[in-house]
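Comment thread on ticket #2218

A.B. wrote:
> Attaching the input chain for the structure job we discussed in standup.
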Amino acid sequence: MNKIDRRSFLLLSGGLALAAACGSSGGENKPSAGSGAAVDPNRRVRLRLGYFPNITHAQPQIALQRGVYTDALGPNVTLDMSKSFNAGPAEMEALLAGAIEAAYVGPSPASTAFAQTDGKELRIVAGATSGGALLIVRPAANLTKPSDFANKRIASPQLGNTQDVALRAWLQSNGLNPRENGGNVTVLPTNNPDTLTAFQKGDIDGAWVPEPWATRLVQEAGGKVYLDERTLWPNGQFATTVLVVRTSYLQKNPDVIEKLVGAHVDATDWIKQNPDEAKKLVNQNIAKVTNAPLPQAVVDAAWLNQEITYDPVASSIKKSVDDAVKLGFYDKKPDLWQLLDLGALNKALTAKQLPEVRGLT
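C.D. wrote:
> Ran it. Output below, let me know if you need it in another format.
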């Protein structure tokens, strides 16, 4: 890379490229919505859907608990949601290798996978969560203004993930840079559970993390909110989680994806109308997957920091990619015009007499 030399990011990029080579359909790079041939409605297909067991992935967990997706897809589609992930890059490798067909994931790993496969292998078909990412600091670190972050140690969930890009872009906008870029801020990509431990021990001074980890740093480690990322975006909206699908699967099974996205919209509406029950169901699934339910106080506080939505907030995805380019995560700016395929989403919204969602312009 021309601005940064990060071995682990190069390994990630190589992994995505290899996964794409193993799982590629070899099809043309063309829009998916409405472009496939007629499909047999009586065929039997499988849909493997990945997600994270955390609060910012509410729709798949609630749909799993309530059977929403299974009912919508019908008897000819076998839905498999047995694969959950802890990191977006690993999830994207699984998708590109053909181990899953669709996934809930952060926009940065999705955009990276899209760029590394020359725009051929995946599409964002809906949004899922806006907001829910905060910069939390230790009071003892005395961080009251951006210049105070010089010579401090700040964690992010993973190199090149959505919060890592946001942190580095924020530092750059305030005249600061990580040490590997010639600056004096130590940015430490760290698994979220390890970040909590390091924060409690005083080994780091702050962390830019998604929910529920931001709230856990406050409630369990005495941290304080330095910055709610919503304050950096127009109307406080930015994509934290999106729904993606492998392009070849979308082209072969547009009807399946239409049903999935329609059910996703239904799940989103149900969550907004039933927030208390939604929080309960999400925490129940987190407990099943991780064997450790979240304290109710964490769930309640974290829930307020995010918005459940089907809108991918396309403008924020474009801005995040632009930031990643400036930070040196790409050798050249990727062409994003095919990244979003919102045909199924807008069809579902029209059926509900709701306004269509805008894509990239």
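A.B. wrote:
> Thanks. Noting for the ticket: The chain has two domains: 7-132+237-351, 133-234.
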